């Protein structure tokens, strides 16, 4: 089997800033970090070469010989530059992840290789970077990871976020176009990871996202023994990102749909993540300087 990867998703078009299709534009391909041209192909077996540049038709679709085509390339990172008909550049992206080299894999049980990218500032996950684990260093402050559109990347696209700093800063994440995430104990558009070594992997179903793998923080992180700021029934006016609270009376305001005993966490985007406690959960309540543990149906102070 030939190692190949699709360059752009089916239906992709080259457009201008107003989302109008660019006719007569070109897509040019190079080896990553160089000006050496790179051939792209019309099929996943890399048997039908299209050359090192492809022209767009009146609808902005990559075309060859009057026919709209799909674009594939082989192993190794590459550079892609898009230009208008007047040769002015629309965009140029380097070090795009190419096909995975499976040469050394066992023929009966090939295992995918996870690639890692280090991030220390706000970023958007790349639409061609399925399988990437973003190692997020938040030493300098909390950062925000924005998901690509699940519709754009399609079913099966997967990436991970890892908290890689022994600090109180967190990694916030959010989706686009109001797409939801079936997250740990909750479902919404936002979320966060707050403990050193904590990892979440997200997978797209073509419409939204689900957390399919979760790795809790290292010893000293916020779970399974975690810290809450206080016990209360209503949100605070200016919550701290990542702060947790135990609801101790009939909840009001933004918490009105929650239940007494729930743990809520500020998600960094003006909302809250709700956790339903389970037997054995143990928390340190900062403003009371005591420990409490959830047993059967209630929190019991030590």
Write the layout of secondary structure elements.
Elements: E1 5-6, E2 26-31, E3 40-41, E4 49-51, E5 53-56, E6 62-64, E7 67-68, E8 72-73, E9 78-83, E10 89-96, E11 115-119, E12 123-124, E13 132-136, E14 143-146, H1 150-153, E15 155-163, E16 171-174, E17 181-183, E18 186-188, E19 190-193, E20 199-205, E21 209-215, E22 225-228, E23 230-232, E24 244-247, E25 263-266, E26 272-275, E27 282-285, E28 290-295, E29 298-301
Parallel strand pairs: 11-13, 12-14, 13-15, 14-16, 17-21, 22-27, 23-24
Antiparallel strand pairs: 1-8, 2-5, 2-9, 3-4, 5-6, 6-7, 9-10, 15-20, 16-19, 17-18, 20-21, 24-25, 25-26, 27-28, 28-29
Description:
This protein is mainly β. The protein folds into 3 domains: 5-96, Tailspike Protein, Chain (Beta Complex), CATH 2.170.14.10; 115-215, Jelly Rolls, CATH 2.60.120; 225-301, no CATH class. It has 1 helix and 29 strands. It has one helix at residues 150-153; strands at residues 5-6, 26-31, 40-41, 49-51, 53-56, 62-64, 67-68, 72-73, 78-83, 89-96, 115-119, 123-124, 132-136, 143-146, 155-163, 171-174, 181-183, 186-188, 190-193, 199-205, 209-215, 225-228, 230-232, 244-247, 263-266, 272-275, 282-285, 290-295, 298-301. The chain has a 7-stranded mixed sheet with strand order 11-13-15-20-21-17-18. The longest helix is centred in the middle third of the chain and has 4 residues, at 150-153. The chain is elongated.
């Amino acid at each position: 089997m030939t190692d190949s990867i699709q360059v752009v998703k089916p239906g992709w078009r080259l457009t201008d800033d107003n989302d109008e299709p660019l006719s007569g534009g070109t897509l040019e391909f190079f080896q990553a970090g160089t000006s050496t041209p790179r051939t792209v192909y019309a099929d996943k077996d890399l048997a039908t070469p299209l050359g090192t540049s492809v022209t767009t038709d009146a609808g902005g679709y990559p075309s060859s010989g009057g026919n709209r085509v799909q674009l594939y390339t082989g192993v190794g990172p590459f550079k892609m530059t898009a230009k208008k008909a007047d040769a002015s550049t629309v965009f140029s992206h380097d070090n795009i992840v190419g096909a995975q080299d499976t040469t050394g894999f066992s023929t009966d049980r090939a295992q995918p290789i996870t690639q890692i990218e280090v991030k220390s500032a706000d970023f958007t996950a790349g639409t061609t970077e399925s399988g990437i684990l973003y190692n997020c260093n938040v030493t300098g402050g909390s950062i925000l990871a924005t998901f690509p559109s699940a519709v754009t990347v399609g079913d099966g696209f997967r990436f991970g976020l890892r908290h890689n700093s022994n600090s109180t800063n967190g990694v916030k994440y959010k989706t686009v176009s109001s797409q939801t995430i079936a997250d740990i104990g909750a479902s919404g558009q936002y979320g966060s990871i707050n403990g050193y070594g904590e990892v979440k992997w997200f997978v797209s179903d073509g419409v939204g996202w689900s957390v399919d793998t979760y790795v809790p923080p290292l010893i000293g992180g916020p779970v399974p023994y975690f810290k809450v700021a206080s016990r209360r029934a209503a949100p605070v006016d200016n919550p701290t990102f990542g702060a947790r609270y135990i609801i101790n009376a009939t909840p009001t305001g933004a918490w009105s749909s929650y239940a007494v005993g729930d743990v809520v966490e500020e998600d960094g985007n003006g909302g809250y993540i709700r956790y339903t406690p389970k037997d054995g959960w143990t928390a340190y309540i900062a403003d009371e300087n005591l420990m409490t543990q959830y047993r059967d149906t209630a929190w019991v102070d030590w």
